[in-house]
Design goal:
Distance between the termini: 16 Å
Helix content: 55-70%
Strand content: under 5%
Largest sheet: none
Radius of gyration: 21 Å
Order of helices and strands: HHHHHHHHHHHHHH
Number of strands: 0
Shape: elongated
Length: 259
């Protein structure tokens, strides 16, 4: 996960959550409630200072209000404050503090925060590296439907990272993320069906379906697999397999929007 993508994605998700809390409230009413001690209003005000909504963007002031809310135990504020420490937004970057605040939000059940501390544990950012603990927290977030966590957990099972290799679990979680529209997971699902991993036997129609979906979703990795299927290198794939796979791909719609 590169830094720019990580920053843009996390900030976008946090601010989307913030706007959903009190999007109809004016900045004046939010400020009044925040000064009276409302943790939700303090979070909303901090978020608005971050994105410049109805006010001039001010990262330091954002952190000031997020800290007030986070110290009251508001999980969304704890997560966003952790993000600020992670990337040095309005405050000196501090991976230990980032992990601390992510953890406080994660234990309250916030899926995005659970994913973030899993990532920290996997990379050893602000904490000791632990693949087994990372897998545990990826699972918590994945079970809540977070697509990126489902993909990460599938990779854990695929690469025996913190868990024993398990092809059925690998396919299960790749499929969960793929159905939400994650191209990287979609091509992995295609490979599982092509090589017969996690299933009782190979399914070339299903492999072609997911490879097509992944290609249409922008995956360059899918091209190699599509070529193998179309050229029938293993002499087992029939035109009927490809026709059925394309039919299934054409009817595919993501189950829910990717979180």
């Amino acid at each position: 996960m590169s830094a720019p993508r990580h920053i843009v994605y996390l900030l976008a998700m946090a601010l989307v959550s913030a706007s959903a809390v009190a999007q109809s409230e004016s900045i004046e009413s939010i400020q009044a409630a925040a000064k009276k001690g409302s943790a939700m209003a303090q979070f909303e005000l901090g978020s608005r200072y971050l994105n410049g909504k109805e006010t001039t963007r001010n990262d330091k002031e954002a952190v000031n209000w997020l800290q007030k809310s986070a110290k009251q135990g508001y999980p969304q504020a704890q997560q966003l404050l952790g993000f600020c420490y992670a990337v040095g937004l309005g405050v000196q970057g501090n991976p230990d503090q980032a992990f601390l605040w992510y953890s406080k939000a994660a234990v309250q059940g916030l899926a995005d925060a659970q994913y973030k501390i899993a990532f920290c544990l996997e990379k050893g950012m602000g904490t000791l590296k632990s693949d087994s603990e990372a897998a545990t927290w990826y699972r918590k977030a994945a079970e809540q439907g977070l697509a990126d966590a489902q993909l990460a957990l599938a990779i854990c099972y695929d690469e025996e990272r913190g868990v024993k290799r398990d092809y059925r679990q690998k396919l299960h979680w790749y499929l969960a993320a793929a159905e939400q529209g994650l191209a990287q997971a979609q091509v992995k699902v295609a490979r599982c069906y092509y090589y017969g991993q996690g299933v009782d036997e190979r399914d070339y129609a299903e492999a072609y379906k997911w490879a097509l979906i992944a290609e249409r979703n922008g995956s360059d990795e899918a091209n190699e697999l599509l070529e193998a299927l179309r050229k029938n290198y293993e002499k087992r794939i029939t035109p009927e397999h490809l026709a059925e796979g394309e039919k299934r791909a054409n009817s595919f719609k993501p189950k829910i929007s990717r979180r």
